[in-house]
Amino acid sequence: MQQQSLAITREIGDRHGEANSLNGLGSAYYSLGQYPQAFDFYEQSLAITREIGDHQGEANSLGNLGNVYDSLGEYSQAINLQQQSLAITREIGDHNGEAKSLGNLGTAYHSLGQYPQAIDFQQQALAIKREIGDLLGEGASLFNIGNALSQLNQHYEALQHYQQALAIYEALKLDHMIERCKTAIAKQNRIIAAQEIAAPAISEAD
User: Fold this and answer.
1) Domains of the chain
2) What is the CA radius of gyration of the chain?
3) What pTM does this model have?
């Protein structure tokens, strides 16, 4: 469908539609894990959005390219592109895009093992998602914050974020995310229980 759409937009000279179709093809290849092809389509989309002055589309393409770099393990490049995307979304007042860029930055910093920075960006994203009523995005931010907190051994706090995310996903009836939350909650509960058992033993040894 995207290739047919691309052919039509090119035939009628719809540059904006062409950029959207290229972006859609990039996302399709990204979902398949075919990153070189995704990168190529995102870059073509970026070039057109810059040419026609579509700042929102430019920010979106930059963010998507950043996600490709993140998936390839090139985190510095990912962060650079996400920061460019963030700057544009803030400049044009695109709150949804801003939250997306902040979340992507959080993901990149998490991949780098820089968990405090990851939490900071995810919390900024969370605040915007709550403000604009993006319930699905709110659940994702809470879950991602939980993941980073768990890496920092802040298991009670991680548990609370996973539980909040679970409540949202249950309300949205997203079964696959409900299961992911329940698995994460069970893991945190096991760690917390093990720590509580170990604590008295450590005190007695002292």
Assistant:
1) 1-116 (1.25.40.10), 134-206 (1.20.58)
2) 20
3) 0.89
